[in-house]
Design goal:
Elements lengths: L7 E7 L6 H4 L2 H5 L3 H4 L12 E7 L9 H6 L10 E2 L16 H6 L5 E3 L5 E3 L16 E4 L10 H13 L2 E4 L3 H8 L6 E2 L6 H7 L4 E2 L5 E4 L11 E4 L4 H13 L3 H10 L12 H29 L1
Parallel strand pairs: 1-2, 1-6, 6-7, 7-11, 8-9
Antiparallel strand pairs: 3-5, 4-5, 10-11
Length: 305
């Protein structure tokens, strides 16, 4: 955490390929710590809010939607909403995101990134934008893309530079692939989606993968490679538990506790309640059930009709 902003946070969310929407919803826990959000709470709590700036970064910079994405939808986004499904907006409603003058100059209108559930989010910043370089951020958050997608050199260099500088990095679900490809997990402990850990152990053998914990905090340093704290989580909503633990550790007190209570997160615990073997058996059971129901469901539906 930066010592230059004792009452504020600067966070970048790195969006790569088609990001799982649920992977990135933890950013709203940080949003709930902001002055704008906290001022709606009663009494002294309203005075505890932080100055917060969130930067949403596109894959390789400020490029527009890919041609393939454009074929899916002729997308215009309401700038009043950060995350949105495609919607038509007139030019009169188009506006720059409020913020410092420098930040406004770096933004690119209608630079959208695809999420799951047919949603899009404005990714207004590039990995080369001055506002998101090492020394300018407290946290880089990496939500999960499709597993195994190879990231570009520019994206991986961005992650490496922040790790080397000492920026705190929060990795959610399959964001572990981005971090592992960048090499910042080598020699360190990391969590990941349990079902993917066997594959990850083969592909990234230098990482100390832990499939017993929902999230892992590693404060160790690898000289010249990774100097900051690294937090990694298991699949999807385990990222919420990780971020809840993070804010309770870094900003202890009534504000973080109130935020976690309102969101009803942070009480699952660091360790899973079941073993990997039990989880695998459960998944096998669901596959067999689906196989059986998949053969029968069309006939059952016709009978019901």
């Amino acid at each position: 955490m930066s010592k230059s902003l004792p009452f504020g946070l600067r966070i970048a969310v790195l969006l790569t390929f088609d990001t799982q929407m649920l992977d990135m919803v933890g950013i709203d826990l940080f949003g709930m710590l902001s002055k704008e959000y906290m001022e709606n709470l009663p009494g002294p709590l309203s005075a505890l809010g932080l100055d917060l700036q969130i930067y949403y970064i596109g894959k390789d910079g400020s490029e527009a939607l890919s041609d393939a994405s454009k074929e899916k939808a002729d997308v215009k986004v309401d700038p009043r909403n950060s995350a949105t499904t495609p919607t038509e907006v007139t030019e009169s409603t188009t506006a720059s995101r409020p913020g410092p003058q420098q930040a406004q100059a770096e933004q690119t209108n209608h630079n959208l990134r695809a999420l799951t559930a047919q949603a899009y989010i404005k990714a207004e910043y590039s990995v080369t934008s001055p506002s998101v370089q090492p020394g300018q951020l407290d946290i880089v958050m990496i939500p999960g893309p499709e597993p195994g997608q190879q990231q570009s050199k520019q994206t991986l260099d961005f992650v490496r530079q922040h790790a080397k500088y000492g920026t705190t990095i929060l990795v959610v679900c399959t964001g572990c692939y981005v971090a592992a490809q960048a090499g910042i997990l080598d020699g360190r402990k990391a969590s990941a989606p349990r079902a993917l850990v066997p594959q990850l152990r083969k592909e990234f053998s230098l990482v100390k993968w832990d499939d017993q914990r929902r999230f892992v905090k590693d404060s160790s340093t690898v000289s010249g490679q990774s100097e900051g704290e690294l937090w990694t989580s298991g699949g999807i909503c385990n990222g919420l538990e990780m971020i809840a633990a993070f804010i309770n550790e870094k900003i202890p007190g009534p504000m973080s506790e109130a935020v976690c209570a309102m969101a009803d997160v942070g009480d699952k615990g660091e360790y899973y309640n079941s073993s990997v073997g039990v989880d695998n058996a459960w998944w096998l059971g669901q596959i067999l059930r689906a196989l059986f129901l998949g053969k029968r469901s069309p006939q059952l539906k016709r009978r019901e009709d």
